[in-house]
């Protein structure tokens, strides 16, 4: 039998527990709404919603009308997104040209700039830029796990006109037989497409151009920019700079293998590996010269060129720790997402069918594979659309070296600003690996950043510190806490703010 004192303590404790846990939904929602309000009021004078009436652009070429999309007729979108133009255009002026790229162009929102044009491409290689459009930075979005499209509060159309292009040939709705051998071929074909685009939409000539993308676009975009800089008369546009998120810049051994075990230690409670396996990983990292690499070699300024950890640009036999970790993570969590490690079971339904590492089984056609959607945006009805192509867009492989080892330094030097953004919850390309790449790269006369990257140095308006940022000699590097691989999807305000910086609309990222 309990004593009176014990009963008193139990009753008191019960009261405390009940008080702590009976927080009402109204209070939770009120706190969340207040937090959302801080985010929504944080982008200076820029609106956080795209109005139904964007800035008007009238195109004089009658052919432009063939690409017009009625903003009130896009399937499942129950609001007017305003006028846009989409369809296929060839990569050259040859009347017999069979290779065509699919695009979707939107003019700026009410306070966006008419003087600028943002180009966006996803990576892959062979992944569709319509993924970026629908789930990252387009004027409406249909996110993973949501029931229908909504207004994208952080659409990049609030900054300027935006052009999403499915490239290279073989990607998405784009037409023709892929034949590119390397990134120079890709850039030449993309610029050829842009020439045809500007002939139809000639009022966009002479705009300031910003090249942006993510993932393998870390290879695409610098090569495209370098091609434009070395062919200054090829386009009637003025290239200002580039923005690349979670980019493929160097060898996978640098951006995946070296930092992989340290990444697991940083997020031990997320991976939830047992200690025996952790000791095995640590031993393997030591054997493969990954252990301590970052602490020894990533100095500010660098002490010379950084060495590869093994005998080649690939992981030595037995040293593929990244895949060992991936397989182990899937055993613990079948929904483990290499693009954002925080995802767990069950997998949320995705209208594009590709939420992460775990392939979703769709009960309905993928959004861009629906006939009504294809008709609305002038896409070919005979193409089975998939987010990432199942054919090799480089038929014999990409013959180009990574961009950080070749063209990226020149692009930084010729651009007004270059921005590299990295989500810190990304496992497929790890932020510490990108730091290694930067510290091994020479631009504007010096190698790497000369001063350390300060903690908590990326400040998001109305939110506070959300990662790090660093600027030296024309290169800006930003790391974003909580964000996965697709920064405009997982941290849209951070991406939006860093784009404002790229475009000279703010002094700091």
TrEMBL record:
Gene3D superfamilies: alpha/beta hydrolase. This is Carboxypeptidase. It is an enzyme of class 3 (hydrolase). The keyword Protease applies. Its EC number is 3.4.16.-. Residues 1-20 form the signal peptide. Keywords: Carboxypeptidase, Glycoprotein, Hydrolase, Protease, Signal. One of its GO terms (biological process) is proteolysis.
